[in-house]
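Hi team, as promised in this morning's meeting, here are the two structures we talked about. I've kept the exact order from the run log so nobody has to guess. The first one is mostly here for context; it's the second one we should focus on when we meet again. Sequence first, then the predicted structure tokens.
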Amino acid sequence: MEKTLRGVGVSHGVAIGQVRHMGTAVLEPPATQIPTEDAPREQARAQAAVEAVAADLVARGNLAGGEAQAVLEAQALMAQDPELMADVSRRIAVGSSAERGVYDAFAAYRALLASAGEYLAGRVADLDDVRNRIVARLLGVPMPGVPDSDEPYVLFARDLAPADTALLDPTLVLGFVTEEGGPTSHSAILARAMGVPAVVALPGAIEVAEGTVVAVDGSSGDVLLEPSQEKQDELRAAAAARKAALAASSGPGQTSDGHRVPLLANVGGPADVPAALENGAEGVGLFRTEFLFLDDSAKAPSAEKQVEAYRKVLEAFPEGRVVVRVLDAGADKPLDFLTPADEPNPALGVRGLRTLLEHPEVLRTQLRSLAKAAEGLPVHLEVMAPMVADRKDAKDFAAACREAGLDAKFGAMVEIPSAALRARSILQEVEFLSLGTNDLAQYTFAADRQVGALARLQDPWQPALLDLVAAAADAARVSGKSCGVCGEAAADPLLAVVLTGLGVTSLSMGAASIPYVRTTLAKYTLAQCRRAAEAARAADSAEEARAAAQQVLSGE
């Protein structure tokens, strides 16, 4: 019988197919005692397994490229954590086998993360995945992960580790559904980058039986179980019509009455550029440079290596706009040479610009590398700082840019509520603002972006978040400067209309979302966008805000 479940849609498109579940988690190894003389051999086995898993994660990252590479390399560093390995060695020395020592050491670290606040608790899924891969290798059993199948399927899982999501084959994996995760989790971001329909935070996802035919709507978050043939035909027809409309969409982003809203791409490096160009990006609205720093957590990349990577992206957009975010390290992106390991709450500690100001040589090298990479190119380079809190932060960053001889516009990311509330003050020091709605929602609602149970508070339709967007956009308008959105909110076509109505001047998103946003924006006048924005802000919840905007735009 047809039944509809509701999760959070995080990647556009419709997928219809049979359910396949992720490989089961590794079983707990037996707690057998080994002779003392076998300890060196077991320690060597554990070390070899760790190194092999780390190498595999790095290799997967190299294949995936872009944002996926940064995520997977961070996981590889987690596998090789010196404190974890020291704990494994200690446990083996007192009688544990290699697999049991790994299992127990990771369990202890897992408990610490789970109790260290929601931000670090969001790393537990990544840690579990690393543990399972190491233990599987030691036990000689198949690695947990994406199932083998010659036929296309819809993947269901409790959660998807970045290592699995990064290398999903879109010719076989029609879409995926997870019980955990949030709209701004790593898996959601990677799904949008791949263009794979996805729904997260779906209660009971792992209880759906293997082989069940489902229809997954990555826009609405609806998952239909055993849809009728008539319903399948209806969904396929709608998807085909949407695909045709998207294919016919081209040109710059603008409203139906010609109000320009440049549509830009979020990229993690050169590997993401082809998709951006293919989908008609007018430039780059967020170049996440941290991927380059994750190759070796012990030291920063050389200036030569940075110049080479930056220039590849800049060359792809001649006379276009490329907005580069300087290194955003800390919290869930720790670097051994840069970020403290003992912060009680990294999300509220030294991260982003705060980290760079404590290590001015790292910032100076990056800014000078950007300046050199842009030499001789007609590209419009803009550079912005992450996690700006107030005018002093903005002033310090602008001074660092000038000192480095950077011929570019300097900007500030609005990810902290204080920056939105005091945007006019910050704009006295910089030339543009860019709203990072993922972190802005996280800090506005004290809701970790990695925790699926808090998806309601991470919803960018929350009226309080729209109020902050409006405050920043209005400050930029009064100052005669620009204010874009580079968070994942821009990837929602209907919300893109509302953001335009709030006064946002550009929208940046995963490349696969650009055609959807371009097509939707072109349906409405600027006046309609503004009325939809007013209606959304007048609501009391994200659901009501979305419904109110839809009602205005449908003319009801």
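And here is the second protein, the one for discussion:
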Amino acid sequence: MFGKILIANRGEIACRVIRTARKLGVRTVAVYSDADARALHVEMADEAVHIGPSPVGESYLRADKIIAAALATGAEAIHPGYGFLSENPDFVDQVTGAGLVFIGPSAASIRAMGLKDAAKRLMEKAGVPVVPGYHGEAQEIVLLASKAREIGYPVLIKARAGGGGKGMRRVDHPDDFSEALSGARREAKAAFGDDRVLVEKYVDKPRHIEVQVFGDNFGNAVHLYERDCSAQRRHQKVIEEAPAPGMTPALRKAMAEAAVKAAKAINYSGAGTIEFIVDASEGLKADRFWFMEMNTRLQVEHPVTEMVTGIDLVEWQLRVASGEKLPKTQGEIALAGHAFEARIYAEDASKGFLPATGTLHHLQFPDAPPQGAAMRIETGVRAGDAISPFYDPMIAKLVVHAKDRTMALGALHDALARTEVAGSTVNTAFLATLAADADFAAGDVDTGLIGRHQDALVAVAAPSDEAIAAAALAATDAGAPGRAADPWSLLAGYAHFHTLARRVRLRFGEENILARVSARPDGRFQVVLEAPHDAINSHDLRTLPRTARWPGHVTVFEGAVGYTFAVPDPLAKADEAAAASGSLRAPMPGLVKLVRAAMGDPVIKGQPLLILEAMKMEHTIAAPHDGVIAEIATEGAQVSDGTVLVRFEEEGQG
């Protein structure tokens, strides 16, 4: 076993690797950028090396700096985690060329599976079923459009390099092919440096089911059963589970055999995942699945496989890379119970899942698993950490395991309801609503489920008057430790013959709320709300809903929903200019990738004006109303959240 390894990654996966390494007595070296100088993975590692500025191109993608850090600290091997350089064969060559061990597959294996088109041709030769489509080298638009017609609409345009939904477009009609192709190519180029694509048949009711495989350097390869990752938004996974609901013995056997066959075809060593698309329109059948791609690394969702098999996949990675054989044979790997993983992101589900930033002023996960279940929290952040625009906005992975799917789903509900995040917009309410969706609960899930039910899934009920009253009470610092014992200390001043009330102003969205809070001799508080809200007679501190007070705000938690109220500073002057309706602001930090209008152009509501790139994804910014453009952002400009992108001429102007 290695004595010391370097982890060429950040966040939760770096922390995950460190925990297993520590268990095995292996010392760890972390690397970090400027933005991550005080990150959790840096604190957890035995040593840490600074490798550059915050942008990934100047830090986590700098192979030379990472290898130099490994050599300088005496590390024997490099664990790539996932993302960044984990599937870069040139990086593997550089690592091995420096006399270090890459904890993962060989460069040749990565190259064989790195490009979707070449991988599918290879799988066809190996006898693994592949989805109908065009996987050739030619990239002329006329040829690609012709192939799309041959395949039959709808089709899916996919970047041949990379994954995660980047560079992917569904096209339903030939007239839309050119525009979709351009967008997919731009996004693929930005994310992977390769704008080549392939075109495939779009399956009407697709299930995304993948098989975890593992190989060693002695020709052995096994599978660790399947995961279902069909619950996706924007082609990115949201909730994963193992095993796949409704899986039949015949399909499991066929998929597992195909996955192991694929791994052996490229002499695979280490952890890998074979992703299949399954046509579920007539149920799960052994002849209705096709190879999509192979991820030649550890997957984000690997914990659900660990939960149902009892196997530490990172430990296996370290053992295999250090020269050991696979710890278990196929017959020794058993499947037990059911597991779910929910990805908690800083994102706004109601705005098309736009990534969010902010400081995690309050972060609290369940302190114990739900009854009858096991739970683990995989995170790389703590309360007080910032969600940076430079990296993926994942906050944590919440993983639960129970004896069957029904109990595991109940445990997921419970754990989400006890998760509290304040300081950034998060998707916990969306996750809880998805987990409660009738189709999802029944196991009738496909990759289009979220899109079909999106309006209902992202809708959040308005806060109750009880929640508003709790926010008003929290705004007086009533929730502070020790306050319940001395309620009078909460309120300034004293009145001999009547209760002194404190006026509290709140803002929720566009609504201004006024409340009066007064202390009572019995230790309770009376909160009265002005119309249109009902009066709440009193609140007992012992039953006060969960709240978090942070600079200028109060968040009240009701189940998995966090209602955030602004607490205006009465001395602050309103910024009227910022609230003007004649401008369009950036919904998130990003790069102005493409501008489609110019100063003086008349535009109509819904017309695309520019494309903003954030987190390597493209977001179209459209006109909110008819008007004439007075000013528009410059192509290539880097903007922050709230930056004015477009100003419209006022009526009568010009």
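Starting points for discussion:
Residues 249-265 form the longest helix (17 residues).
Residues 348 and 354 are 5 Å apart (CA to CA).
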